Amino acid sequence: MRHLLVIQLRKKAALTVGLIGGLAFLVLAILATWLPWDTDSLAENKNKPAGEKTASEDPYLYLGATSCSGSACHGSTTPRNKLRIAQNEFYTWSQKDDHAKAYEALTKPDSKIIAKNLKLAKPEESERCLVCHAMRVSPESQGTLYDLTEGVSCESCHGPAEKWLGAHIRKDFDRQKGTAVGMYNTKNLVKRAQKCLECHGGMEGKVVDHELIGAGHPRLSFEMDNYTHAMPAHWLPPQDKKEREWIGARAWAVGQAMALHNEVQLLITSRRSRDGLWPDLTHFDCFACHHAVVDHLRGVTDQDKNEQRWRFREYDGKPGRLVWRSSLYSVFRYTVNQISPEEGKTLDQLVKALHEGLAGKGGSPDAFSATLNRLAELAEKIATQAAQYSFNQRVVLALMRNISGDGQRLAAVGFQSAEQAVLALASLHDSYVDTVGPLPDGKAVKESIDALYKEIQVSRSFNPMQFEASMDKIHKQLAKTDGATRGAP
Ligand code: HEC
Ligand code: HEC
Ligand code: HEC
Ligand code: HEC
Asked: How big is the CA angle at 253 (ends 249 and 258), to the nearest 5 degrees?
């Protein structure tokens, strides 16, 4: 539960994003830039089927969480088994996991405000909310105990149980048999990330777009390792030592690649099925628009003038243009360079093309489509490589040093990148401790990372200079670990 704090606070931060003037102007500029894509891809894609399969098309029945809750099944109140399946999964989920309260959240005042702003009658009956806040499946796919009010329940992540519920308790059952009949492979990190991102990133038909955020919904932000740890675990660590080692670092790396994949997939599908502005504003850095501006030079301090000036951007863009939310890449690129330097070069080029395409400079719509498809493919390929990569002490420390050593750039790129950098350091540090044991200066490093969390609690009061100094401090603390890791594998 170590990182729940930041996630909760991050929610509040998103809800309190301040908006400063001059935006109507921007929107006009956006329309001017994007309209060409609009007409083309609308015509091109009218008849295309929706890309991804949704839960409601599943051929199997969803049986509901009470089918899993027998006390001899997953409903024990205390762990019964220390080796494989503890059997208290239902209890953990229903008592401690926010997913079990996801439907209930739609009946609370915050949801009522969101619904009122969106002119939805009842959020708990609105398709727009239920797709993520409950296990929403078509009437034909509902078993007799299916219950929408259970929220995000077992089969939301583990797949419809009709054909494996009976079989999965037999001795000769294995995962392969399960996945053949609807069980979802949550053990596979790439698959797991894909599943979480369906709701924590979004997919066709399930989105937290700028309208929803404007209405009061928290900004979605995801990092698989931290989020997995923030869920009260209803599973045991892998028994196999090799599999257990560096699992946090692997989950982090895979999650990063899949978050990028998910983002590009969202761009592709929303372009096909869009009924409004494309791309949705959530694909851009929030703070590209939501920041203070000074629009004159006379009678203001030098500090004010600095506000006016264009800030550093992740790639060589131009002042005054919208920027893609590069937080999905600004930290991840360290990993790519580590585990797959060749792909790293291609990825750099494709990300640059994405930046340009979103600024309306990407050549023809077809060329941009091709860029998006290649980028999605490559991100998935790297995710698979990351899942198989053998992390070690030296690599994980190098990643931590490289990330913390680049505080200046990350702070300048912006709040969302800083947020990902903190999550990365926390994930890598904890993975190090889990696999190797404490760092020589472990207590100090941990304290510094905890302090960093505080700095990203509220986006509005994010201070790039302070962040840079804190990152630098961690970088220096990590330098002391040299002796301990010299000659390490
Ligand atoms: C794409 C999936 C998705 C959709 C669609 C969606 N949500 Fe959410 N919602 C989430 C996720 C994920 C979180 C948790 C975010 C986090 O903490 O990182 C969340 C969090 C919330 C919260 C804060 C929860 C709490 O316990 O404080 C509220 C309130 C909420 N959603 C209401 C709504 C309403 C109302 C709608 C429909 C108008 C809606 N959501 C649509 C995914 C979604
Ligand atoms: C939000 C997604 C999610 C929900 C909801 C969820 N799980 Fe899980 N579950 C996971 C993940 C992730 C893992 C860890 C990966 C793994 O071991 O497969 C896991 C692991 C498990 C395991 C251990 C599997 C193994 O082979 O070690 C069991 C058993 C399990 N879940 C049962 C349940 C039950 C029963 C429920 C409902 C009461 C439930 N889960 C709800 C995501 C979820
Ligand atoms: C079917 C949609 C769905 C899926 C799949 C899903 N989640 Fe969630 N998740 C939600 C919603 C909705 C919430 C907000 C619930 C609330 O606060 O009421 C949430 C909340 C959370 C929270 C709590 C966040 C906070 O701010 O306290 C964590 C942690 C989390 N999810 C992790 C995961 C992980 C890890 C996975 C994949 C293994 C996953 N989720 C899969 C919908 C989903
Ligand atoms: C292209 C510029 C742009 C981007 C990028 C952008 N927004 Fe907005 N945002 C706007 C505009 C314009 C409004 C509407 C202002 C109004 O109604 O007065 C708005 C409104 C809002 C509101 C409603 C509160 C208010 O003051 O109206 C919130 C909250 C918000 N945005 C959050 C976000 C978040 C979080 C992100 C990133 C995921 C984001 N925005 C990205 C331009 C942007």
From this structure: 145
Task: Based on the fold, state whether residues 158 and 274 are members of the same structural domain.
Answer: no
pTM of the model: 0.91
Q: Are residues 318 and 459 in the same domain?
A: yes
Instruction: Report which bound ligand comes closest to the CA of 215.
Output: 4
Claim to verify: residue 340 and residue 479 sit in the same structural domain:
yes
Q: Indicate whether residue 326 lines ligand 3 (CB < 6 A).
A: no
Total domains in the fold of the chain:
2
In short, whether 13's Cβ falls inside 6 Å of ligand 4 is: no
Q: What is the pLDDT of residues 460-486, one digit of tens each?
A: 889 989 999 999 999 999 987 765 444
Mean pLDDT over the full length of the chain: 84
In short, whether 197's Cβ falls inside 6 Å of ligand 2 is no
Could you say which of 159, 181, 203 is where a domain stops? 181
Residue 145: CB within 6 Å of ligand 4?
no
Least confident of 71-85, 284-298, 305-319, 352-366: 305-319
Is there a single domain that holds both residue 139 and residue 85? yes
- Structural domain boundaries enclosing 449: 4-24+250-485
pLDDT tens digits along 36-62: 333 233 233 333 333 334 444 668 999
CA of 365 to the centre of ligand 4 (A): 27
